[in-house]
Amino acid sequence: MSAAALIALDRILVILVAVSWGFAGGHLLLSRAAVREGRGAARRAAWWSAALVALALLATAGRLATTVALAGHGWWFAAEKALLALPLLLPPALAAAVLSLPRLLRGHFGPLTLIFPLTSAYAAAAGVVVALGMGYPLSPYLSVVLALAVLGGAPATWSMLTRTGPPGRAWRVAGAVVALSALAWSGLSMWNARLPSSLRLASAGSVDVTALRGPADATRVRRFTLTARPAVIRLASGRGVEALTFDGRSPGPPLRVRQGETVEVRLRSLLPDRGVTLHWHGYHVPNGEDGVPGLTQNAVREGGEFVYRFRADQPGSYWYHTHETPNRALQAGLFGMFTVDPVTPEGFDEPVALHTFGGALTVALADAPPADGLATRTLSPGTPVRLRVANTDNAPHTLGVSGVPYRIAAVDGLPVTGRTLRDERAQLAAGGRYDLVFTMPSRPVLMSAGAAGLLLTPGVGAAPAPSAGPLIDITRYGSGGTEAPRRFDRSYTWVLDRLIALRGGVPRLSHTVNGQVWPRVAPALVKQGEWIRFTVVNRGGEPHPMHPHGHHVLVLSRDGVKAAPIWMDSFDVGPGEVWEVALRAGNPGVWLAHCHELTHAAEGMTLHLAYDGVRSPFALDGHNHPE
Ligand code: C2O
Ligand code: CU
C-alpha cells in the first residue's frame, strides 16, 4: 500500500480504536453495575462486552499493522505511533485479550476483568491526542503528560473497582492535583507560544540585508513603475471581478527584459487596507530585493513606495507577486509575469498565467484579459511556439497539449533537455513554470489545464479534444545537466504535517513543519558556499508545493527513485511522499521558504533559511505579514 493510503487508513483506525475501546469499557461498567444489582442477565451482557473487546482488539491489531507498514515507508511516518501511542496501548490490550476475555466469557465482572479494557480505553484516547497534536519528531512534554495520564489512570481505576464506598480523600486530592496541573501546563504552553507584538527573526550578524541590494550604478537599465490598487477587472467573457491589481490589471503588466539588463521597478501603493511588496518568484535577486515584509523590507503602505533593482542575469520564465498577506492579496490579483530573454524571442513566445478569478480558472496572455474559457490565437503553420505557463494558483494544475508533439524546454525558468511528449500530460506545482515548445502544425493545437485552455489555430480545422493522456513524472523527465555533489555540508529534514498546534498561543488546526508553526519553525542555518541536503516528508493528505526563495534546488530523488536530476524552485511534495533536494548556498541573506499553497503557508507552513552572519533590521509586526 502507498504511504498516502496507509496514512488515510491509520486516521480511520485511530478513531475506530478509540471508539471501540471506549464502548467496550463503557459497556463493561454498565453491565457490571446491572449484574451486581441483579437487573441484568450476566451471560448476555458478558457476550456483548466480549464482542466489543474483540472488535477493539481487532482495530488495535490493524493499527499495529499500519504502523509497521508505515515504518517501512520511513520512520518519520511511524515514530510517534511506534514510540508512544502503541506502547501505551498494546500492554493493556494484550492483558485484556489474555486475562479479561476468558473471565468475561465465564460471566465474571470482577476488577481483573474490567481494569485492562478500561486502561486500553485511556491509552486509545491518548492515541487520538497523539494523532491530532503530535507528528514528527516526538514532543517530549506532551509524551510525558500522556504517559502519566494513562499510567495514573490505571491504578486510580483499580482502586475504584476494588472498593465499595465512594472514593477516599486521598484519591480525590490526587484527582484534583492532576486536573489542576494539566490545566496549568496547558495554560503555560499557550502563554509561551504567544508572539511578541514585534519579532525580529535575524537580529545578529555583521551583514545587514539592507546592504544586500542590486547595483546602483548600472548602465543598461529598464525602468518600470507598478502601482498597486483595487480595481474591477473584466474577464474575456465580460464578467467583472473585484480584484487587487497592479496598474488596474491582473495579471499585472508583463515585465520582459533582455538578459544582462538591470531591472528597476518602482512599486507604489494605493491600497487602502493592506501593505504590498514585490517578490521575484524563483529569481536569484540580492536578498534586499526579495520583497519579504518583516525580513527584507517593510511592507509598502498606502502612499508609500519602494524601488527594486537587480541585474537580470538569469534568462527564463519567472513571475512577481506581493508577499504581504499573499494568501489573500496574490489570489486577489497582485501578481504578474516576468520574462528574461537571452536573445530576441522568435515566433509565438508568450508568458501564460493560469489563475483562478472568482472561482473560474483563467488563461491570461500578455495582451488580453484573462480568458474564463478558451483563449484563442491564430498562428501560421511552421511558427515556433513557446508557451511559458505559470501556475499562480494555490493548487496544482495538469497541463496537456493535444494536436502536436511537444517538449518541456524549461522547468521553473531553467532549461531542461527531455524527450518529445505525445499526448502525455504534466502536473504543474503551485508557483511553478513549464515552457512548452513545439512547431505550429497545419491544424489547431490545444493547450489545456482543466476546463481552461489556449487554442492555437491556423484558421482552419476543428479544435482537438483536451489531452487525457498519462501523467509524466517531471523529476525523471529531462536532465538539467547538473550532477549532485557526493557529500553535503549539512542536512535538514522538513516533516510536513497537519496538526493542532499553538498558533499565536491558541490551539488551532495548522500546517506544520517538524511539528512547529511559523515563526517558531527552526530556521535552516547555512553558510555561503555550502551544499545542503533537504529531506522533505509529507505526512499529510494534501500536496505541499515547497518554495525556497532566492535559490533553485536540485531534485535528487522522489520516494527513493533517483531524479534526472532537475533544478526547481517550486516542488510539489505529494501526500506520503519523500523528496530529497540539494541547495547550493550561493546567495547570502535571510530567505523565506514555504509551501506555495498559500493557505498552508498562512497556517504555519513557513520557515526561513538563515545565512551565517546576515542580520535583518525588519520585524514581524502589525504591518508585516509575509505568510
Ligand atoms: Cu511565490 Cu514566497 O513566493
Ligand atoms: Cu502545503
From TrEMBL:
<feature type="domain" description="Plastocyanin-like">
    <location>
        <begin position="241"/>
        <end position="342"/>
    </location>
</feature>
<keyword id="KW-0472">Membrane</keyword>
<keyword id="KW-0479">Metal-binding</keyword>
<keyword id="KW-0812">Transmembrane</keyword>
<protein>
    <recommendedName>
        <fullName>Nitrite reductase (NO-forming)</fullName>
    </recommendedName>
</protein>
<feature type="domain" description="Plastocyanin-like">
    <location>
        <begin position="510"/>
        <end position="610"/>
    </location>
</feature>
<keyword id="KW-0560">Oxidoreductase</keyword>
<dbReference type="InterPro" id="IPR002355">
    <property type="entry name" value="Cu_oxidase_Cu_BS"/>
</dbReference>
<feature type="transmembrane region" description="Helical">
    <location>
        <begin position="114"/>
        <end position="135"/>
    </location>
</feature>
<dbReference type="InterPro" id="IPR011707">
    <property type="entry name" value="Cu-oxidase-like_N"/>
</dbReference>
<dbReference type="InterPro" id="IPR011706">
    <property type="entry name" value="Cu-oxidase_C"/>
</dbReference>
<dbReference type="Pfam" id="PF07732">
    <property type="entry name" value="Cu-oxidase_3"/>
</dbReference>
<dbReference type="Pfam" id="PF07731">
    <property type="entry name" value="Cu-oxidase_2"/>
</dbReference>
<feature type="transmembrane region" description="Helical">
    <location>
        <begin position="141"/>
        <end position="161"/>
    </location>
</feature>
<feature type="transmembrane region" description="Helical">
    <location>
        <begin position="47"/>
        <end position="76"/>
    </location>
</feature>
<feature type="transmembrane region" description="Helical">
    <location>
        <begin position="82"/>
        <end position="102"/>
    </location>
</feature>
<keyword id="KW-1133">Transmembrane helix</keyword>
<dbReference type="InterPro" id="IPR008972">
    <property type="entry name" value="Cupredoxin"/>
</dbReference>
<feature type="transmembrane region" description="Helical">
    <location>
        <begin position="173"/>
        <end position="191"/>
    </location>
</feature>
<feature type="transmembrane region" description="Helical">
    <location>
        <begin position="12"/>
        <end position="35"/>
    </location>
</feature>
<dbReference type="InterPro" id="IPR045087">
    <property type="entry name" value="Cu-oxidase_fam"/>
</dbReference>
